Amino acid sequence: MGISRREFLRSCGRTTVTLMAVEGALVLRDWPLGPVAEASARTLLVTDWKELADIALETARRLGASYADIRIIRSRRETIAVGPGGGGGFSMGPALEEERRDRRPVRVTRSESFGFGVRVLYNGTWGFSASPLVTPDEIRRIATEAVAIARANAAINTARVRLAPVKAYRDTWQTPMAKNPFEVNLQEKVALLTRVEELGRKVRGVARVNASLAFVHEHKRFASTEGSYIEQHIYHTLPNLTVTALRREASARPEIATRNAFIPPQSIGYEYVEQLKWAEIVEQIAHEAVEMLSAREVEPGRYTLLIAPSNLYLTIHETIGHSTELDRVLGYEANFAGTSFLTLDKLGKYRVGSRIVNFVADRTTPGGLATVGYDDDGVPAQRWHLIREGVLVGYQTTRELAHAIRETFSRGCSHADSWSSIPIPRMPNVWLEPGKERLSPEDLIADTKAGILIEGRGSYSIDQQRLNFQFGGNAFWEIKNGKKVGMLRNVIYQSYTPEFWSSCDAICSQEYWVNQGTPGDGKGEPQQTNSVSHGCAMARFHNITVLNSGSV
Amino acid sequence: MASKRLTRRAVLGVGGPQDRGPSPGAAPSRGLSDFLLDREQVRRLTEMLLSLSPSKETVVLLRRTYATHLRAAFNAVTTSGSTYTTSVTVGLVLGNRLGVATADDVSEAALRQVVREAEENARSEWFGMPLGEERDPLPGPQEYLPIRAFFESTARATPEARADALRRVLAVAQAKNLVAAAFMTTSAGIVAVANSAGLFAYHASTDAQISMTFRTRDGSGSGWAATSARDFEELDVEKAARIAAEKAIRSVNPRELPPGDYTVILEPDAFADMGPNVTALLTGRRGGGGGIFGPDLSLLPAERVEVGKPITNPLYTLRSDPTHPKLLGMPFTLAGGGFGFGGGGLGGGAALLQAGRPTRKITWIEKGIVRNLLLSPAQARRSGGEPTPAPTSLIIEGGEGTLEDLIRKTDRALLVTRFWYIRALNPILGTSTGLTRDGLFLVENGEIKYPVKNFRFNESWRTVVENTEAMTAPYKRVRDALYPAVRTRAFTFSSGSDAIE
């Protein structure tokens, strides 16, 4: 498959195209909206962003705001997918699916979004407004609107926001990486995925392989009336690989099984893609997908579970990550995401898990999807304990929330998912610390008389206080007398957060710790997404309720 | 089923802010008036985009939205803001390949660039999408149902007016010594489709929505309510607040009942979220979200669904009516058929070329019997039938009376206010899991007797529909459809939950 010169230019020459477009704007007449209509959104190309930022801050201050900040954000995304395409994205009849099927063997999409949002405090009340038109006039107008909103709400408000102090920072930060994924030739990416897809399809019984790469780049410029001017380039690399196996038998319904490799998404460059052992990964999951076709139905009951990082990360996210968000604890999210069972009276006392269970919140470790230089309040990234030796010892905070637990500084958890979103408290990376004694997954299996090993994510659901949860998985093995003795299907486990973590009696050691994560953490109204990592090593849990998802 | 009495006004499209605002070219962009382009401004923009295209098959979609939000928690305002968004999508065909590109502003430079990118994508093996051999021609000029969904009261609602609506909600909570959290949104937007076969469609609409959760001060009770209106002046926030307050107070000290099968009354939001998969019903599929598999991997037996034959519980009638005053839905689709609830989604793919087809009033299922099937233009051509419009603005009906009437006629059932965190369990069986939340009550002998601790359910939407034994008249818009409350037998609650607030 060749690459045209045009595609080559497209993959490296976008900025040039944009600049040409700005020049073009100067010569055209008879514009449908009139000569002034709308200035180009590309003003930034010819203006110092700090000057634009100052317009927002000065406008807000002049109108009486006690605090203001502005985020000017350009984000871009590239996805390359190989393997049979899906339908048009809707659930339709098979015939319609077929009509809409995207038949391209290789599908590339690129998108870009650019705009700014201004947030202000007026008399202790927030106001926000956002626009994609990054021009001085529009910034003035939007800052004015943000103050007008804050002022109207302040008139009815009964509580006043208090911000924990923060220093002024003038800094730039970039995701540590060796190779910018947006500078890697498209042909190279396509060739890699094509090779992986072909390798997977060679395995007997495999019907389809889908391999994709997604890359995200967020260029975020933040300025606030505290005196900070912070510019950050944040990169995410998100590989995905699934294999579907199919067995047709003349009389019965065809059997189908899909295995996902769950390659951890990371905040990292293209070097990560190059270092992955694609051939090993695809061959392993292809064989497992075929084996899944013959997996036995699980018998409902109480089981010992060995949970691999590719499944445990989401359990951590739902049970510990969300329950230690201080805004939830205080009731900010009561109308949608819910509150938390980890109420303030439990801080420093309440046992969430066994003594070997330690959770760390962290926005500093390279690779974590929530790792940044500064949050959206302009607070530097930090690392702190949430759960130590099984006991609740900390919460996730922002400048607005810190005082609620009598802390004098923010933990730096403020985040807005785009220029058009107002920053809200969001989850940092939340790690499960590895076990202190050297312990491998093989050791743990050998040490287990009877149980189920769970890999990969499946269905997941948890109540609004983060207690009753029910999670599925992608692949399951029965363990008997210290050995994997065959695959199971339709396993879902249901438990209660403190009961579950209190039953944890073994966690594998550092060497087996995997930085799993998700780019799909949802919260807030209007809902925003967040990317977080939940590194962990395989852990063991006792006496957990298991159901069969095919016969509930 | 198109109405024969379409007026010229309907043909031109109705609603929208076209009768005010400065004439194009008069003043720089200042605020909402200029932002929500009127019909003629949009027509000129789309004509220019079409003229820039090197293809004779070009479609242009333009959408602009002004959205505001206002949140409260613990009886105080928390965050609030507004957002202006624009999207201009151009799809064009070159050499039997579709290229699509999107811009986020309507400056001349952006529009020239978006056409150029669409052209480059159409010429690219990787960025362009190959089209089938016998694709449908672009739809030409169409007639649309007259739907006036734009209300100045909503578009022009000031920050003070929005704050006052929230203040009235908080006042209800405070009067009952409850703790309120709430979320209110307003939006005003325009959307337009134009293509090189002469189709031009323009629609303006507004919406206002509010939801709220009231909790008791000790965290032992929680109640939820939500309402919406296209016209901000009709948004009855006090009524919703009274419902939330009553549920919160009544839900204190819930009793624990054992997991098991119960008859349940699902209020409209619970029913909508649990969701009968209407598209699956209409296309005869038995699964939930099976669309990920092509025919080569299809698990679904080729069950024939035929017009005139029963398909579901005879209590159910399902029809589309975009003109229904409680819906005021879209007069046209944005992709060939934004099938599924909500409808009108921006499809990628070849369906984009069919954007701008009119929506219609149509009955899909009448008392459980299929009256019309989903037929795309290509399917219709093959089968010799008439293509059907997209199933947008759905109304689920079959019962009469109010929720109170339904409760009065019930011997024993659990009344479910809403569900939370619903996720598919088994797509083949259509089963899902989730939890009750913010108001679960035992109804006995026609009365609400006492609150019940929350449950997790594991159940399929098919069972919900098949076991339905009674329903109210449809009364609540949830997203893009109008729902009743339904009473259904043998709904499976699998475990309990201590979560209240």
Automatic annotation (TrEMBL), chain B:
Metalloprotease TldD/E N-terminal domain mapped to chain residues: 60-122
Record key words, sorted: Membrane, Transmembrane, Transmembrane helix
Location of the Metalloprotease TldD/E C-terminal domain: 259-494
Domain Metalloprotease TldD/E central: 158-251
Biological process per Gene Ontology, one example term: proteolysis
Keyword Acetylation set for record: no
SUPFAM superfamilies named in the record: Putative modulator of DNA gyrase, PmbA/TldD
InterPro entries: Metalloprtase-TldD/E_C, Metalloprtase-TldD/E_cen_dom, Metalloprtase-TldD/E_N, TldD/PmbA_N, TldD/PmbA_sf
An MF annotation (GO) of this entry: metallopeptidase activity
Region (Disordered) residue spans: 1-31
Residue ranges of the TM segments: 178-202
Top-level lineage group: Bacteria
Family in the record: Belongs to the peptidase U62 family.
Protein name: Peptidase U62 modulator of DNA gyrase
Species, as recorded: uncultured Acidobacteriota bacterium
Taxonomic lineage of the native organism: Bacteria, Pseudomonadati, Acidobacteriota, environmental samples
